[in-house]
Write a structure and sequence with these properties.
There is one protein chain. By secondary structure, the chain is mainly alpha-helical. The protein has one domain (about 5-485): Glycosyltransferase. It is built from 19 helices and 5 strands. The strands form 2 sheets. The protein has a 3-stranded antiparallel sheet. A hairpin with a 2-residue loop joins strand 4 (about 360-365) and strand 5. Helix 6 (about 170-185) packs antiparallel against helix 7 (about 190-210), helix 10 (about 235-250) packs parallel to helix 12 (about 280-295) and helix 12 (about 280-295) crosses helix 13. GO terms for molecular function: cellulase activity. Keywords: Carbohydrate metabolism, Cellulose degradation, Glycosidase, Hydrolase, Polysaccharide degradation, Signal. It comes from Lactuca sativa (Garden lettuce). This is Endoglucanase.
Length: about 475
């Protein structure tokens, strides 16, 4: 008998969802808003299709100090910085969300692709502006963080930072290669010439990342640390980048590269997080697909390590290692914890899809974990974010009846240029930061850092570890909530 499809499996196990706090309409609403959030993070010249009307054009001269065009891209969180490493990871995860779950996005697929393209267009510029160079940051983090001003009024330094043969950055370069390759898959049918340009650039950037090995945290330490230091090193990104280029191109040389260099990623050591910094768990799940579908024996270990990762997340399984709050939230660390919730939920659903499509199961010691169990666990996490939690509040701005209204976000908390056309200076903006009033501009769809280990959340603008949204929190959520919107 052929293995049941994911949809049939869900129908057979509908009792697991019988007491769900949310319907498919709720998830569809959350999907719409999770994508809309990215419009609030846009840098550069905004298009006529811009829907968050309180935002306006900003940073229109980025790159001019180096005589290159670096206009566009995304502000990473509540500041006005453009950091290359988290932006590239955001782009990769938006692409992966569309690749795996775009079929469930229905009318939102076009908006999801637009969000992806805003990132991939910028990364393409950053990778091709100057031969042998990758631009990885725009803005001075320290001066930016001292100001509280909307991006439309920015007057802090917009210095640019790059990696090169003399100052390598294998981590940020390989992540950029992954993003471009993943995006090329999304646009392969609809825009083949653009897709080919993305893929060729990905190959070039990957070659640069691999040939000139080194961490960008060493080359650009004062600029990128402690904000987005590459704590995990660069070997995980090299394997991640190679895996994505292989999937996009089917070029066997990248498979050979993975087989020859897999040990450098620490495949013998399973790590139980997946983030803008550490790509090991995501790479293993991505490569497990090659084993499950094509039975490439050299990739069997990635299936085993993916099983270990998945089993670590399932409460009560023999290999369970993850910590959960009393309210049931996956808890990895104090700062911006929901980023780990959205990435792990995405991997649970993606691995469930890979397993189910190939009649497989995850082995947790003597016990077997089914794709149904992975889906149920992911759903608990997504539902918690949307409001099924002890605080009875949604951690997505604009979703539900109760959600954060004092988020740590400059553009959201300072009156918009439409309501207050006069410039608000760096220092003058602090009156809005210190205000007890709700943010005047609703950053619809933003997922904040989230509650603490005791399920408590302070709706406090100054408490950035809980109240700051980020693009890399939302990007994997887009794919996860798309799945539930159609089931």
């Amino acid at each position: 008998m052929a293995p049941p499809t994911l949809l049939i499996l869900l129908l057979l196990t509908s009792s697991s969802f019988a007491n769900s706090a949310f319907t498919s309409d709720h998830y569809s609403d959350a999907l719409t808003k999770s994508i809309l959030f990215f419009e609030g993070q846009r840098s550069g010249k905004l298009p006529a299709t811009q829907r968050l009307k309180w935002r306006a054009d900003s940073a229109l001269h980025d790159g001019s100090s180096a005589n290159v065009d670096l206009v566009g891209g995304y502000y990473d969180a509540g500041d006005n910085m453009k950091f290359g490493l988290p932006m590239a990871f955001t782009t990769t995860m938006l692409a992966w969300s569309i690749i795996e779950f775009g079929g469930f996005m229905q009318s939102e697929l076009g908006n999801a692709k637009a969000a992806l393209r805003w990132g991939s267009d910028y990364l393409l510029k950053a990778a091709t502006a100057t031969p042998g160079t990758l631009y990885v940051q725009v803005g001075e983090a320290n001066s930016d963080h001292q100001c509280w001003e909307r991006p439309e009024d920015m007057d802090t330094s917009r210095g640019v930072y790059k990696v090169s043969a003399q100052n390598p950055g294998s981590d940020v370069a390989a992540e950029t290669a992954a993003a471009l390759a993943a995006a090329s898959i999304v646009f392969q049918d609809s825009e083949p010439s653009y897709s080919q340009k993305l893929l060729q650039t990905a190959m070039n950037v990957f070659k640069f990342a691999d040939h000139y090995r080194g961490s960008y945290s060493d080359s650009l330490h004062n600029a990128v640390c402690p904000f987005y230091c590459s704590y995990s090193g660069f070997n995980d990104e090299l394997l991640w980048g190679a895996a994505w280029i292989h999937r996009a191109s089917q070029d066997t040389s990248y498979m050979t590269y993975i087989q020859s260099n897999g040990h450098l990623m620490g495949s013998e050591d399973d790590d139980f997080s997946f983030s803008w910094d550490d790509k090991r768990a995501g790479t293993k799940v991505l490569l497990s697909k090659s084993f499950l579908e094509n039975k490439i024996e050299e990739f069997q270990s990635y299936k085993q390590h993916s099983d270990n990762y998945i089993c670590s997340l399932i409460p009560g399984s023999q290999n369970s290692q993850a910590q959960y709050t009393r309210g049931g939230l996956f808890y990895k660390q104090e700062g911006s914890n929901l980023q780990y919730v959205t990435t792990s939920s995405f991997l649970l659903l993606t691995y469930a899809k890979y397993l189910d499509s190939n009649g497989g199961r995850a082995s947790c010691g003597a016990s077997t974990i089914t794709s149904e169990m992975l889906i149920v666990q992911a759903k608990k996490q997504i539902d918690y974010i949307l409001g099924d939690n002890p605080m009875k509040m949604s951690y997505m701005v604009g979703f539900g009846d109760r959600y954060p209204t004092h988020i740590h976000h400059r553009g959201s908390s300072v009156p918009s240029v439409r309501d207050h056309p006069d410039r608000i200076s760096c220092d003058a903006g602090h009156r809005y930061f210190n205000s007890g009033s709700p943010n005047p501009n609703i950053l619809v769809g933003a997922i904040v850092g989230g509650p603490d280990r005791n399920d408590n959340y302070a709706d406090d603008r100054s408490n950035y570890i809980q109240s700051e949204p980020a693009t890399y929190i939302n990007a994997p959520f887009v794919g996860a909530v798309a799945f539930f919107s159609s089931h």
